[in-house]
Design a protein that fits this description.
Layout lengths: L16 H15 L3 E7 L9 E7 L2 H17 L6 E3 L6 E5 L3 E7 H7 L1 H4 L4 E6 L1
Parallel strand pairs: 2-5
Antiparallel strand pairs: 1-2, 1-6, 3-4, 4-5
Helix pairs in contact: 1-2
Length: 129
């Protein structure tokens, strides 16, 4: 986990920080009208993260707005982004916060890659249509 405490925060991250950050990503996506937002608990299913958030964007403009809003919301929890991959025009933006990975996909890319099926053993925690 790459964690930077906010100025008034304790010097160690809270134990539930990854879940709080993942929920912040879900809320930010929902607030920006992402569709079919899913929060998956992938602990035990993969080694690279604890939670994966998948959401769909209806346009390239919305994809950029979602990525910016999600990044701001997650970083407000104290978790820092390690990398951002993809572009709005590509139909897939990935935000990697170490313990939380967020996928923002066009509806076409989402239907093609079906990420929820990739991690069938993951536990769905939340789905916002």
């Amino acid at each position: 986990m790459y964690w930077m405490p906010p100025r008034s925060a304790p010097s160690t991250p809270p134990a539930d920080l990854p879940l709080a950050a993942a929920r912040a990503a879900v809320d930010a996506g929902s607030d920006r009208q992402a569709t079919d937002v899913v929060l998956l608990d992938v602990r035990g299913a993969v080694s690279f993260a604890d939670y994966v958030v998948v959401m769909s964007a209806g346009s390239t403009r919305q994809s950029g707005a979602l990525a910016d809003a999600v990044e701001d919301a997650v970083e407000a929890t104290g978790l820092r982004r390690l990398r951002r991959e993809g572009t709005n025009d590509s139909g897939w933006v990935l935000l990697d916060f170490a313990d939380v990975v967020v996928h923002i996909l066009s509806e076409e890319q989402r239907a093609h890659y079906r990420l929820e099926q990739v991690w069938k053993q993951a536990k769905p925690l939340l789905r916002v249509q």
